[in-house]
Structures are given as structure tokens and as C-alpha cells.
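Board work, copied verbatim: Aminotransferase class-III
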Amino acid sequence: MNTLQEQLQADHEYLIHPLTHPTAHQNPKIWVAGRGSIVIDAEGREYIDGLSGLWNVNVGHGRAELAEAACNQMKQLAYYSAYVGSTNLPAIELARKLSELFYPSINHFFFTSGGAESTESSFKTARFYWKAVGKPEKVKFISRMKGYHGVTMAAMSATGLPAYWPMFEPRVPGFIHIESPYPYRFVNPTPHLSDGVAAANLLEEAIVREGPDTVAAFIAEPVQGAGGVIPPQDDYFKRIREICDYYDVLLISDEVITGFGRTGRWFGLEHYGIEPDIAQFAKGITSGYIPLGGIGVSDRIYEAIQSVPPEQRWMHAFTYSGHPTACAVALANIAIIEREGLVQRAAEVGDYMLRRLQELYALPHVGNVRGKGMMAGIELVADTATKAPFPASANVGVRVQKEMTARGLFTRVVGDTICLAPPLVTTYEQIDQIVQIIADSIEATVAAVKA
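↓ predict structure ↓
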């Protein structure tokens, strides 16, 4: 039996982690167990999981029925290719189930292994569609700053977080960014319009500037997640849909984080009363118990896929598309969400969480508290009157994260914004604990910064 120190040494010697750099991995946690909203490290210490693993463990940790679903399917048929000419029962049943849950116009699904593959599938499908209908010049994609769509090459090129770019340049050509609606900091250039409409109109400006005949699609998260949990203004997406329709541009909804109940609805754009042309998903479809993602396409896009001649077919594929075991786990996961009413629970507990977090405004450096369902962000600033941020040298976000971890809350900080997305099964008592830990951690950090 290796000691904890030996395991950590082996980790340093053999494992490359996402976003790796030795300065960020000096004292990593080794996670060994989880139950509900609690995760346990190798030293036996328990923490509230403030980010559902990585925005994905919606039904909570330790769900034996998901392990059993995987085991039963593996014993019968762990894997077989779902390339054209083959299929399997779990993939068929999952696609049928998703057609019931998704937006009414989206009834056909392609499966991937995760979010970045789903983004790539969306982009390729959008380009395919425009070629299939005789508009082959429509190849560009518009996305938003602070948006996150994955870090494969095209997905990274759409991602609007510049830290991901420099060491992998040049990015894929044909990707354009507009500003985020970011209600706390958006500067409205047209004050006679609402902030939401003004922010959406940045899309129209970009389409006109690039040329409508060259733009294939606009991709957006209903709530920006990794950029700092940023819900848009209520009228933002209605205007976005109008612009996309007017200029004949597809709307891709990135539901990788917001899907499967996270926002208090099955899918994020339901809050805003519109439907996308393509919806991509991952994370919550299996609650992270096994990798699975995918895209759903509107009926008109599916018709294009079906109607082209064989030599122009949708030549897109992954080895693990329609993986029987992953699809079986997804079906069991969705059954839990439905049986336990977790979508409605996310709405109710999420409302409570946001109300409790808004009490943090009593602290002098809490600039903005925002959220939707079981997603929230708490942005810390040096001056709440001017919204001036702390200097980067103060390392406020990193310090707050260390304080929260020491007090039993493990979550993510983006810059100086504390991100929260606890499992949908998180209790009211645990929400109270989260808020208290955050308050204590902010106070301790500010005291240290000012010392």
C-alpha cells in the first residue's frame, strides 16, 4: 500500500493535469469518495462540493443505481460501434427520451464523448447545413467574450477567454467575438435601448460587418459558466433570436453546463422563451459518472442531413458515438432527475441560494451577486462604488479559494469571482453552510490583504 506522500509523488512524476503548471499543483487533493454533495479526500476530510465536480454531478455523488446501470449494460454489451449500419438499444432509447425533453423543434440527436466534441459537431453541422442548402460561403462563427465552449482547436477559437489562446496560436480562422452582455459591467452604447437589446445588437453589427452571406452561426451559453457565471438580461436572447432569423444565421445553444436541470429548467433557453437551431450538451446528461455528450438539431437541419446525395453525406463520426454503456447511464441519470423532481428542486433551492448569497452585499467588497437556478457567482471588487477590481498582485481570488477550502468548501474561483454550482440534491442546510463559509473566507482574505 503506497502512502499518501508516495501517491502524490507519483502524481507529480507521471500525470499531466488539465491547465497544468507546477505552481498550481503543489498540494493537490486526492479525492477518494463522495456522497450527495460531499466529497472526501485521501486524508478523510469532508468538503461540500461547491461546483458539482466540474459543473456536472447534478444528481450528487455515490449514486449506486448509476454504477449498476453501467455494470448491467457492460455485462450485456459494453461497446459496439454505432456507425451507420449499426445501432444499439440504449442509444435508440436515449435519443427517443431526449426528443421528449428538448426544445420542441429538436428531435434528432448525435452523441459524442463530451462538450468539446459537441462543439466541434455543432460547427461542422452548421457548415454542412449551409453547403447542403446552397449557401457554401456561410462558414464563419460568432461567439462571445467570457464564453467557454471547450479547448479543442475550433472550440478554443470560439472560447472567449484569452488565457486559453496564446500558447496554441494561431487559432482557427473564421471565428469572431462580440462582448458579453455581462449585466454588472456592460456599457450600453445606445442608452435609448435596454441593456439586453443593446448587447444583443452587437451580434447584428458583427454579422453586417462580416457579411451575412459569410456567417454560419452564433454560439452562446444561456448562462455563461466558466467566464464567471453570467446570466444575461431577460430580453437579450429574444433579440438574439430575431437577429439570427433576420440574417439567416443559425443559433447554437451551448447547454453543456445549463442542460439537465442546472438552471431550474431542463434547458437554459427555456427561461427566455426561444428555441435554438442546434443545442449541444454533455456534463449533466450522465452527471459525470461516465463521459457522454452530443448535439440535437432542428427538424430543418435534420431534413438537410437526410436529403443530400450519398457522396455529400454528413461525414462526421466518433468511435464512441452512441456508446451503449454511456447511454444506459444517461437513461438512469435522467430517470433520477425525473423521479426526484430535481429540475423543480434546482429552481427552488437555487432561489434560496441566491437570496442567501445576496446577504453578502453587507460585506464591503462584494460587488455583484448573480445566478440562475443552481448556478451563482460572487464578484469581489476593491471598490463597490466604482466597480474597480482588486489589483492582480493582491491574488484575492486565490486567497479566498484557500480560505474556503480550509473551511470545508471546495469550489472554483475565476479571477475574483467565486463560482458556485453545487449538486441539485444540495440541502438547504448545506446552502447555509456554503454562504457562511464564503462570508468568513471573504472577511479573512480582506483582512489579510489590508494588513
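The first helix runs from residue 4 to 14.
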